[in-house]
Amino acid sequence: MDSRELMELANTWGAHNYKPLPVVIDHADGVFMWDAEGKRYLDFLSCYSALSHGHRHPKIIAAAIGQMGMVTLTSRAFHNAEMGPMLKELCEYTGTEMALPMNTGAEAVETAIKAVRKWAYLKKGVPKYEAEIIACSGNFHGRTVTVVTFSTEDLYREDFGPFTPGFKVIPYGDVAALEAAITPRTAAFLVEPIQGEAGVILPPDGYLRAVREVTRRHDVLMIADEIQTGFARTGRRFACDHEGVKPDLMTLGKGLGGGVYPVSAVVGTREVLGLFRPGEHGSTFGGNPLACAVARAALRVLEEERLDERSATLGAFLLDRLRAVRSKHVKEVRGRGLFVGVELHREAGGARRFCEALMQRGMLCKETHDDVIRLAPPLTITEQHLTWAVEQFAEVVAAL
Ligand SMILES: *Cc1c(COP(=O)(O)O)cnc(C)c1O
């Protein structure tokens, strides 16, 4: 079947909850993908950081195949030989005391919400069912009903209520607003260290450190959602590392699966995650041996290939080159590591047409909201490919 027929099938038989670029990926390797007609594209999205290791990294694929020859699923009714080592290695990598494995990012966020509520009732002494969680405007934490409850994006909420009580929303990057919103019933503050979906929004310098100080002073837990920013995307292992901040909990996903398999987790302190008792929370697939084998390989590759340092160096290079592109369309180029947003002026007519033009030239990225192009290639990319990509970008902004 050709691309046109394949897209028609998806359109006819699939719910229209996405509006993809008109390209059908047939296979991929490293930083490249090929469509059904054999045209090659440079991946500049990395599945929103889930492909930070590149496509089909040989060591991760080998781990998956090796595990498929052993055992793939056990349920948590029994132990398996991969989960314990994976949780230990994940805690070592993240510098935390305990981990709880799930599958998707949204599930990790839901898990963190349950954990901090439990902590509020058992440890902080908040009256039962009065716990509050504070989140930020412009946030993205997933798509479940509870999580879209505190989204500030109308499109994500419209027609999906009634919602879950117990959430407050404050402006992002504003520590004074956080302190003002805290009450004796506040369990936690949930925050993205850089807001990815909102358009790669960096908070003011010192924000995360100030958040850590305020939350600690008021006995409020800090949850950093590092699902998109974690695992070397921003040039450090985690985006919180740039300010030397240790949250009580981190939600992790995307890159943890090495581009192969959905793996997520909540990591953090024993004081919080140690509160779960058998039966209170779980997941059929969470912690399965295939997921754990893949995640272990993904963590090893991050270290062996120093992907954090690569992201820092190459990210600085990319930002530099992009900022040197002079264009009437570009309002701002911002980012950290290989996590970059190019914001266009309103008059540019939307980021979508720029992404489509880049696609024609063999470079795949995606707009986020109307006016931002998110550039987030696999961390295994080379300077030479980045140079090529910036050339394509420069020609597209000059032509449109
Ligand atoms: C992608 C993302 C999620 C949700 O992850 P899913 O695997 O799509 O459920 C949550 N938080 C952040 C910051 C994300 O980028």
SSE blueprint:
Layout: H1 3-13, E1 25-29, E2 32-35, E3 40-43, H2 46-49, H3 58-68, H4 83-94, E4 98-102, H5 105-124, E5 132-136, H6 145-149, H7 154-157, E6 167-170, H8 175-181, E7 186-191, H9 207-217, E8 221-225, E9 249-252, E10 264-268, H10 270-273, H11 289-304, H12 307-323, E11 330-335, E12 340-344, H13 352-360, E13 363-364, E14 366-368, E15 372-375, H14 383-399
Parallel strand pairs: 3-13, 5-6, 5-7, 7-8, 8-9
Antiparallel strand pairs: 1-2, 2-3, 4-10, 9-10, 11-12, 12-15, 14-15
Helix pairs in contact: 3-11, 4-11, 12-14
This protein binds pyridoxal-5'-phosphate (PLP).
Pyridoxal-5'-phosphate binds at residues 48, 104-106, 109, 140-142, 192, 196, 225, 227-228, 253.
